[in-house]
User: Fold this.
Amino acid sequence: MMIVRENEMYGKDVRFTGNDISLAATMLDKLSTTIEIIYYLMNRREERSFVVMLISSDEFDVGKIVKEQKRNTDILFKLDEERSIYAIICQDTKIDGGYRFAERVMHHLRENEVKEPYCVELEIRNTTYDIKYIIFKLIEIYIETKENKRSNEIVFKSLH
Assistant:
């Protein structure tokens, strides 16, 4: 008989695996400075909001399609080549623009018969959020999406 620990019976906290923690550390290293610059532009009123997208597919390099679909103002980060995980920061973009971008990418992935792409987006509307919080929130949404097997969907949230 398996004994369930009490803290596993309550709450629905996301559990980070070793790979998840490694991904979060990579995201902190690669995205933090860029988000800091975007915060600077937002504070100067040169940017209004931005969207950060995390997209992956274990069986297909999504980077090629993202490169073809992104604007020249969007910033692409390769996070994990083996698991084909990429982050994209879409400057001066609200959730509807970010969602349309994700739709285009997902459409092309379906055309290439990619079976389980995962795509999550987070819209940031102001600079009150700690940059680490943004990155941790994005990876938490990504982990929940994978745990709930919500592939072929665009899961998006907003930070107001």
In short: DSSP finds five helices and five strands in the chain. Residues 1-11 have pLDDT under 50 and may be disordered.
